[in-house]
Design goal:
This protein has 103 residues and is α+β, with helices and mostly antiparallel strands. It has a domain of 71 residues. The chain has two helices and three strands. The chain is extended.
């Protein structure tokens, strides 16, 4: 006989007021058979010297702001949540944007 109970709950972020936000405008994604790694970078406008270097090396280096490793099982839910947020974002004017999670 199984004595385990099923408990339904909602997980909410326990945001701290002093928790810094990190800005990134580029995300590189890699994966293994077990997880996905999202590497968030901040790409700044290139100087003339940067452009010359990029022409020669075909590489632009961007500072990594955060790396997030997610198990494969989390990815379908993340993709669904991102698609829903993009849908809401594109359908509503900014004054009507939700203040919290959409899903």
């Amino acid at each position: 006989m199984d004595d385990r109970k099923q408990i339904n709950f909602t997980i909410v972020p326990d945001d701290k007021k002093d928790q810094p936000r990190v800005y990134a405008n580029f995300c590189a994604i890699t994966h293994t058979p077990f997880d996905f790694t999202l590497t968030f970078c901040e790409v700044m406008p290139l100087s003339e010297e940067d452009v010359k270097g990029a022409e020669a090396e075909h590489v632009v280096r961007a500072p990594v702001r955060a790396k997030v490793v997610l198990p494969v099982q989390v990815m379908p839910g993340l993709i669904t949540a991102l698609q829903e947020h993009v849908r809401v974002f594109s359908e509503q004017p900014p004054a009507n944007w939700p203040k919290g999670p959409v899903h």
